[in-house]
Structure formats: structure tokens, C-alpha cells
Amino acid sequence: MAYTVLARKYRSQAFDDVVGQEPIAQTLKNAIKTNRVAHAYLFTGTRGVGKTTMARILAKSLNCLASKEPTTQACCKCDSCVAVNLGEDIDVIEIDGASNRGIDNIRELRDNAIYRPARSRFKIYIIDEVHMLTTDAFNALLKILEEPPSHVKFIFATTEPQKVLATIQSRCQRFDFRNISPAQIARQLKAILDQEKIKCDEDLILALAKLANGSMRDGLSLLDRLISTGVQPLTASLLEEYLGCPNSEKVCELVAAIGDSNAAGALAAAGDLTNAGLSEVQTADALVDYMRDLMVVKAAGAGSDLVILTEQQKKQAEQLAQKFDIAGLVYGITTLEKLRWSLKNTDSARPLLEATILRLAMSEHFLNVDQLLSQSNPSQDKKKVTVDRYATTVPQPAPQGQPQISGLESIKSNWQNILKAVGPSTAGLLACAQPARFENGVLILEFSASSEVQKKMCESNGRVEQIGAVLREKCGKDIKIELRLGQGEVKATEEPAQTKTRSQKQNEILNDPAVKAVIMGLDATITNIEDN
């Protein structure tokens, strides 16, 4: 007997068997139960997520000969159900839109559709990759979609719905099939291996599920390739040997070296991966995937459903995540994502990859600008004021006998000094505000009418308390802060509208106090300024 691949052997046969598309299956079941089945459906989604499978299940449910009417539980044994499963039913016509895309093909379909089905309740047309039809072919479909015979149903499937004419889509009930989660794919793969009585490691199941990239069919095809090796039990090492996937331990060693700022170790680990046959692009992809896992562990914890790892891998990821902060991981992922496009279009892929890895390994952890500014003058006595997740610093109260700020006019005249004391991030938000009134220990700061966003940002993350702390030190007493939105623009911060040249914009950036502080604190050199 000829071998049947897993994707066909374990194809869902009923609505209740569908994996990952339960909401769509339930909706179609309800439509059948209430006799509200539409004359045309459009199933959209990436490859291997169950569009054609769902179309066949719907066709069997509508035409099952074991039932006197459409049913949600097709028997899968009658002549109609068996023929639909094989794609050979005379009343359920499956058409490949890529090879039957012309107007003549659709005219033939339209001419045949007027005849009643040979033995079933409905004549059902399943057109796969319907977006491949020509514009003329789509237009030929319009008439029959507008006024279809009562015995005809259309089910269209496509991976690119944006290419389907709007006039066609408006005459269909559209269902968007989502990518299947790695956890759901892993459970299905494990169930199939149990039925096939094939032993495997848990590491392999999760790795295959992630490689499937949301496609159940792709996951089953990969599993078929591994089973054909004849090796049992199936282990994660087979992925590297037969599918060219990266060795997870070597990827961990590379990430650990980057986290330890071990430049030599990072280069050696990267060399191990490329020498094992991994391309530079694959190495970059492996780094991105693992850093993504560390980022999620750092942000949401190892117990999050977003982390698709074994328990042992989760513990390892938790340990590695301690070597990074979230900002550093985000920077690494975005840098590597930009790199992978360059790697595909260069003859110097390996040096470019190694240079980027060194850049990541030798870079300092990212510092909040306020932290960096607070470190710029370590000899000065400091007092911490907690703001958001970072701490900014302000000078201690003025020595006794030194004139202190008091009254509205005094606050106005010293406003620039107060802004410097609160730090650059808060000062930048307060640039469009002015002290308006100071009565009974309450200072009202009025923002310009167009600065509602800045006002809301000042109201969050403890910035109001930060301003109050600075004023308490300057004035020697507690001052409450109220933020209000004014009716007009704040004159003191108005600037004439003008178009700035690129050179002027760059000079402003280079002269910004926060930028200068970063450069001095890291002993860095600006190599490029990108426009947003």
C-alpha cells in the first residue's frame, strides 16, 4: 500500500477535529443548525492553517447522504463523504485558481453551475488560491454570485485576500484563519507520534512547533522528514543534522558571551555555528529568536504562555536573561533584523556578522539619561527621587543662610534653574508650561492649549512629585503642584514657524544637553543621525 503523508493521513474530518480555528468551526456549525448557510464564503489565511480542510468539512456537512438534511456531524463513510475526502466527488468540484485562472475557465464553470447536482443537495465549487484569477475571470463570476442558483455554493480560499476584487469580497462571507499557536501545533504533533508509536524528546516537539511558523501542514511535513530518517527516538539533534537548524546549546553559548561582554568568546561561539554549516543569515535569525525569548522572559516571566520552551530551557533562559536589560535586548533584536537584510546582499557576510556580534558584545548596558546625568558630577551630594522605574538626582537643599525662592515672581525668575534641577526628560515636558499662580502653598503650572500630551505625561510616572521635591528644596517648604491646560500658547516658549534644514536639525541634536551627557558619560562618538 502506498504511504500516505501525515498531513493527509491526519487531516481533520469534522468540525470538532479542527485545530486552531475553533471559532470559525463553531460559526459554520451554527449556520448549518439555523439553516443560514451563505451561498459564498471566502476563507483567508497563510498556508497550512486549514482553509481547504474546512472547505471540505463544510461540503461534507452540506451533502452527507447519511442525513436527510445538512448536518454538523457528517458520517465520513457515505459515498459523498468518502469522495469529498479524496477530492473526487462529482458534485463538489475543487478548482486550482492558479492553473484555471482565465475567463474561459470561469465561463465553463458558470455554464455548468446551472445544472442541478447529480446525487447531492448542493453543487459546491471550492476554488483554491482564488486571488490568482484574472480581472476578467473575476468579473465573469460576479453575475452568478449576485444571483446564484439555490443549489450552488461557492467556497473561495486565498493566502492574499487583498488581491481579490472588492466586488467579489462583498458578495461573500469572509473568515480570516489565524496562524496556529506553537503550543497547539506541539500538542497535535505529540498526539500523532503517540498514535504512530514513535518515541521522541520534548525538546524536538517544541522546536518543530516553532519551526512550523503557525502552519500545521508545515509542522507535519517537517515531522515526516524526520521520521523518514529511521532514527528512534527522535531527538533535537536531528534538527541540526537533517534540517540544518542551529544547535540550541551553541546559540545559548553565543548569547551568554554577548551578555558577559566576552568579545573573544562571542566570536568563537559564532564561528562554531557557521563552521557547523549554518549560514550567516541563519545565525542572525537564531540570535533574534533566542533574544526574543529572553526579552519575553524578562518582561513577562518564564511562566508566560508566550514563552514556548521546555522547563529546563526556561530555567536556562531565566539565568541568561539576568545578563541583559530589556532595552539591550530590544536593541540587539532590531540591530540583527537590520543586519539580516544586508547579509543577503553582500559578499562579506561573515565579517559583517562578526562585526555586529562584537558591537553587541562590547556595548555597555543602556543607561537612562537621568541616571547618566546624575553620574556626571559624582562629587556633588545627591538625593534620590524615584521617578518611574529609574532614579533621577537633584542637589541637596541650599545651605542655611543662602537666599531661598519664595513667591510667584521668585519662582518665575528662577524657573530655568528649577528646570535644570528636575532633569532633562521632565524639563523637556515643562518647556511648554509656565508658573501661572502661587496661592496657599499651591503652584499652578499652565500648559499651552496645544500641549495636552505633555501635560498628561507630566501627570504620570511620578513627575509631579519630582517637581514638588525640587521646589521643596529650593523654597524650604512643601509646595503642591497643579497642572492646567491654558486657552492659548505659552508666549515664553513660542518660536516662529520655520522650515529647518537638515544641518540645523543635526546641530540642535548635537547641542542638546542630554545628548552631550550621553556622549561624555559613555565616551562615545556619534557616527550617524537618522531622520525619523
Give Rg in angstroms.
33 Å
CATH class of the largest domain: Alpha Beta
Amount of helix: 40-55%
Biggest sheet features: 5 strands, parallel
Spatial order of the strands forming the largest sheet = 2-3-4-1-5
Number of domains: 4
- Strand proportion, as a percent range, falls in 5-15%
Mean pLDDT: 83
Distance between the termini: 62 Å
Class inferred from helices and paired strands: alpha/beta
CATH architecture of the largest domain: 3-Layer(aba) Sandwich
CATH fold-level label of the largest domain: Rossmann fold
Description:
This protein has 532 residues and is of the alpha/beta class. The protein has four domains: 171 residues, Rossmann fold, CATH 3.40.50.300; 54 residues; 115 residues, Zinc Finger, Delta Prime, domain 3; 125 residues, 2-Layer Sandwich (GMP Synthetase, Chain A, domain 3), CATH 3.30.300. Helix content is 49%, strand content 11%. The protein is built from 25 helices and ten strands. A hairpin with a 2-residue loop joins strand 8 and strand 9. It is extended. The two termini are 62 Å apart. About 8% of the residues have low confidence.
